[in-house]
């Protein structure tokens, strides 16, 4: 994979996902596996490189995966600008990760462009326009989520969050973190406990970094410390993102989210899930039907080439879990807030 390492001004980071050039351009990603130690941009000029970047979490977070995949279909036109190349890229990119529904949502939109295109000569331009529209819409949705969610958070609140649902995971601003950034824009004083988020540390590597960049006080805790923090410190709310939300409001998010929701319920702390409408899968009702990605054992027992368990020990590494709707105080979307979600309320909200 070709990489470029320009220097960036202090406290400023390039976008997680960007398109460089026009129809024969390429997808540029900020390699999130290297953060916060190194800010390196990678150029994805083949569909295989886009697939690898999604699979290996160089780009990650449900909305960002969808945006990257949409641009990935456009990348397919670099070597051969025709329908078959775009068609096989669409199918191939859908095999990269199974849980975040935004991936399939974005690829479905690209497929609709393919299906509707009448003139091969305009195909690449139409595909690029759609990918850019998906990107721009996500930016708008994230800012709207921030405004809607900020109404739920009082000044001087202390929040717990899990994984990374910030600007790195979206077009801009994030979902759960957009709520926090909007509170800051409104002049509210917010403090955050960020779960480190084992096994890939999206909380300590990415969320703590994003919050620090905006001068929001953040304290990193191991995932196992969250219940103790709720028991012994003032925690006003938990706010997280999601990878797929069913019609009745069951929400898949990074592994560890479910136990956070159980702990929040026990301590009487509101538990909020912030996500755009592109994260809802209305074809599913029961969260048990959400496909859960299983990842390589090495992420758990040998991260960064460090041996942390006996050789050949059995490992279970589900990347996501599902929080049942009854543990969710409210869903926050770009359209507003669904308190105590039920199937009736979710379908009406998104109609
Ligand atoms: O495996 P990841 O890092 O892609 O998982 C990401 C999450 O679980 C996020 O919380 C979710 O995608 C919401 S991002 C706005």
Walk me through what this model shows.
- With 351 residues, this protein is α/β, with parallel strands linked by helices.
- It has two domains: 2-141, translation initiation factor eif-2b, domain 1 (Four Helix Bundle (Hemerythrin (Met), subunit A), Up-down Bundle), CATH 1.20.120.420; 144-350, 3-Layer(aba) Sandwich (Rossmann fold), CATH 3.40.50.
- Helix content is 37%, strand content 17%.
- The protein contains eleven helices and 15 strands.
- The protein has helices at residues 47-55, 62-75, 83-93, 101-116, 123-150, 176-185, 202-213, 226-232, 257-266, 298-301, 343-350, and strands spanning 2-4, 17-20, 26-30, 41-44, 157-161, 190-195, 218-221, 237-240, 244-246, 251-254, 271-274, 280-281, 320-323, 330-333, 336-339.
- The strands form three sheets. It has a seven-stranded mixed beta sheet, with helices on both faces.
- The longest helix is centred in the middle third of the chain and has 28 residues, at 123-150.
- The chain starts with a strand and ends with a helix.
- Mean pLDDT is 96; it is low at 1-7.
- The chain binds 5-S-methyl-1-O-phosphono-5-thio-D-ribulose.
- 5-S-methyl-1-O-phosphono-5-thio-D-ribulose is lined by residues 57, 60-63, 100, 163, 165, 169-170, 174-175, 202, 241-243, 253-254, 319.
- 5-S-methyl-1-O-phosphono-5-thio-D-ribulose binds at residues 57, 60-63, 100, 163, 165, 169-170, 174-175, 202, 241-243, 253-254, 319.
């Amino acid at each position: 994979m070709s990489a470029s390492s320009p220097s960036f001004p202090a406290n400023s980071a390039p976008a997680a996902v960007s398109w460089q050039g026009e129809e024969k351009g390429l997808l540029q990603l900020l390699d999130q596996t290297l953060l916060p130690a190194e800010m390196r941009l990678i150029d994805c000029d083949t569909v295989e490189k886009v697939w690898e970047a999604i699979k290996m979490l160089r780009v990650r977070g449900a909305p960002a995966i969808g945006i990257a995949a949409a641009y990935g279909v456009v990348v397919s036109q670099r070597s051969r600008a025709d329908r078959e190349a775009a068609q096989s890229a669409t199918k191939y990119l859908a095999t990269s990760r199974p849980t975040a529904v935004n991936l399939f949502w974005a690829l479905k939109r690209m497929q609709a462009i393919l299906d509707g295109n009448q003139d091969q000569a305009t195909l690449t331009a139409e595909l690029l326009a759609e990918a850019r529209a998906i990107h721009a819409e996500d930016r708008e949705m994230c800012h709207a989520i921030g405004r809607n969610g900020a109404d739920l958070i009082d000044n001087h609140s202390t929040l717990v969050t899990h994984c990374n649902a910030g600007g790195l995971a979206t077009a801009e601003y994030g979902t759960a973190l957009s709520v926090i950034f909007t509170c800051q824009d409104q002049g509210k004083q917010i403090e955050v406990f960020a779960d480190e988020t084992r096994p890939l540390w999206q909380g300590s590597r990415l969320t703590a970094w994003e919050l620090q960049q905006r001068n929001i006080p953040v304290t990193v805790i191991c995932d196992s410390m969250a219940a103790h923090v709720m028991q012994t410190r003032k925690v006003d709310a938990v706010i997280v993102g999601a990878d797929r939300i069913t019609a009745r409001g069951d929400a898949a998010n990074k592994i560890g989210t479910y136990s956070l929701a159980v702990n929040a319920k026990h301590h009487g702390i509101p538990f909020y899930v912030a996500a755009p409408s592109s994260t809802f899968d209305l074809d599913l009702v029961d969260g048990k039907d959400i496909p859960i990605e299983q990842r390589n054992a090495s992420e758990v027992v040998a991260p960064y080439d460090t041996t942390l368990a006996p050789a050949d020990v059995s490992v279970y590494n589900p990347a996501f879990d599902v929080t049942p709707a009854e543990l969710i105080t409210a869903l926050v979307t770009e359209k507003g807030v669904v308190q105590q979600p039920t199937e009736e309320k979710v379908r009406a909200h998104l109609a």
